[in-house]
Design goal:
about 500 residues; alpha/beta; Rossmann fold; 2 domains; 10-stranded mixed β-sheet; 6-stranded parallel β-sheet; 19 strands; about 15% strand; elongated; binds adenosine-5'-diphosphate
């Protein structure tokens, strides 16, 4: 089974969030599950630097067909787009790097639309994927094209549009990692995409007068997956459907959820190269050293008895951290400490910085992105806070489980699929792994925090839950075998005649 895996970020080369972690870990797991995987990536500077530190593959670059697909004429490109074969460091997997310097060789966040040309940049990625899906590489024709998030949404549509009678093209799978980010562009983009006019309509990729890349993926892919079973159900309703629930309901027979895994080679407290004090579920005393180290690093009081809550997160509305902001002072009064690492919405950043200024030594905040501090917080914290309003899967709580930093989570999406609440019956049954609250409000979160403090007052009970949490496994092997089964269930070319689609 040959699988073309199409994505935009991949740990350790480039990561803006959980998507990078998934794309770093899932392809090698798919290979281990028996798939012949190749990855298509845009040539962002970090990707090009990463693959060149590895080695370029012996094959020569592949030119994309001229005069078809997205209209590039007025971009003044000095070289035609090509695909540069390469191998990825670490996994050794083969990659095709979309090499168009004028569009991708830009510093900073890969999704930042500095020149207002994100539409054409990611359309070109979709086009390149479709070309590979149709056999651009004479030596390697994929059976399945697996696309990730809106940046790749046009790939299944181009594939469908380009298919001719003849050899069956690849089947397509489109995975939603976050439905809230949809790749919406003004209608003036549409004529540049090289698609027939009728597709700019309600049964195509038009979304309230704009162009939607997410909708393109949902319309054209043979199968739609998302990253947890609960989120797969939630997006079929108006509350979490982000305006696309109507279309998703029509396609519901093609929608399923496969929960993400954890790369335990990177995220395990017993062999985490970023930790001075490795530990595991059977050597929990060593976690105290990690706590002392975190307190020192972040300027928190050296207080072994303090219950340390950690946050490692994008600071956006989705993550529900405004609930925590309202409870900062209360948490300190209850005897807690708070270690926050994150970046995002300026008002929330400022609010947390003010809370830290009010509570020196008890609340510490680092604004920014810091991989090694993220590991230090997981290791040093007693509990990790993920009170998201919605959460497709969430990796942070999975890391918290493995590090014995018990997750405090809202019962939604992948959070509810991965954390077992420390209710009396679950404590009794020995299945509890964290604290889950139902009502998305300050009151809801306050209740969960109180229950965490109460359990912590009983060190033996707390340690038992920690050990249970640390022994949970969200293995990529399991997710990869589910994806491989899904690929096998697809008939190549099934996407050329998808079921009729509906209004958004
Ligand atoms: P999302 O992808 O929605 O941001 P996830 O929980 O799925 O949320 O994944 C977040 C990933 O990004 C985790 O690997 C987490 O450790 C990492 N992360 C988030 N914010 C930061 C930060 N400020 N510094 C370092 N790592 C971060």
């Amino acid at each position: 089974m040959k699988v073309l895996y199409v994505c935009t970020e991949l740990y350790p080369l480039l990561k803006t969030g959980g998507l990078g972690d998934v794309n770093g870990a899932l392809p090698p797991a798919l290979r281990d599950a028996g798939c012949d995987v190749r990855i298509l990536l845009p040539g962002f500077p970090a990707i090009r630097a990463g693959v060149s530190r590895s080695r370029l593959a012996p094959a020569s670059p592949l030119a994309l067909p001229d005069g078809e697909g997205p209209r590039l004429a007025n971009l003044g490109l000095s070289q035609p787009p090509s695909l540069q074969p390469a191998t990825l460091p670490g996994s050794g997997l083969m990659a095709y790097v979309l090499d168009v310097r004028a569009l991708f060789d830009r510093p900073g966040n890969p999704y930042y639309d500095a020149y207002g040309d994100n539409g054409i940049r990611f359309a070109l990625l979709g086009w390149a994927a479709a070309c590979l899906g149709l056999g651009l590489d004479p030596n390697w024709q994929p059976d399945v094209m697996h696309c990730h998030d809106w940046h790749t949404g046009l790939a299944p549509l181009y594939l469908r549009q380009m298919a001719m009678p003849g050899p069956a093209p690849a089947a397509s799978v489109f995975t939603i990692h976050n439905l809230a980010y949809q790749g919406i562009f003004p209608p003036s983009l549409f004529p540049q995409l090289g698609l027939p006019d009728y597709l700019f309509g309600i049964d195509g990729i038009e979304f309230w007068g704009q162009v939607s890349f997410m909708k393109a993926g949902l319309q054209a892919a043979d199968r739609i997956t998302t990253v947890s079973p609960t989120y797969a159900r939630e997006i079929l309703g108006p509350e979490q459907g982000c305006g696309l629930d109507g279309l998703l309901r029509v396609r519901s027979a093609a929608v399923s959820g496969i929960i993400n895994g954890v790369d335990y080679g990177v995220w395990s407290p017993s062999r985490d190269g970023l930790l001075a004090h490795p530990y595991d579920w059977d050597s929990l005393d060593n976690k105290n050293g990690a706590k002392a180290e975190l307190q020192r690093k972040m300027g928190l009081q050296d207080d072994p008895g303090a219950m340390v809550f950690g946050v490692v997160s994008r600071l956006t509305e989705q993550k529900g951290l405004h609930l925590m902001e309202a409870l900062c002072d209360e948490l300190v009064t209850m005897g807690g400490q708070l270690a926050i690492l994150g970046a995002g919405d300026a008002p929330l950043e400022q609010a947390f910085l003010r809370a830290a200024a009010r509570n020196p030594g008890r609340i510490a905040v680092e604004i920014g992105y810091n991989e090694s501090l993220a590991h230090a917080i997981m290791a040093g914290a007693d509990a990790i806070l993920v009170p998201s309003r919605f959460e497709p899967c969430g990796l942070t709580q999975l890391y918290g489980l493995r590090y014995g930093a018990l997750p405090v989570v809202h019962r939604v999406g992948g959070l509810s699929d991965s954390v077992v609440d420390a209710s009396a019956p679950n404590l009794q049954a020995g299945s509890a792994t964290g604290f889950v609250f139902d009502e998305f409000s300050t009151q809801g979160l306050r209740g969960a925090l109180r229950r965490a403090f109460d359990l912590r007052a009983d060190p033996a009970a707390w340690a038992k839950v920690q050990r249970t949490a640390m022994q949970q496994r969200f293995d990529w092997r399991e997710a990869a075998s589910q994806y491989a089964a899904l690929y096998r269930s697809l008939k190549p070319g099934a996407g050329i005649h998808p079921e009729t689609t509906a209004t958004p």
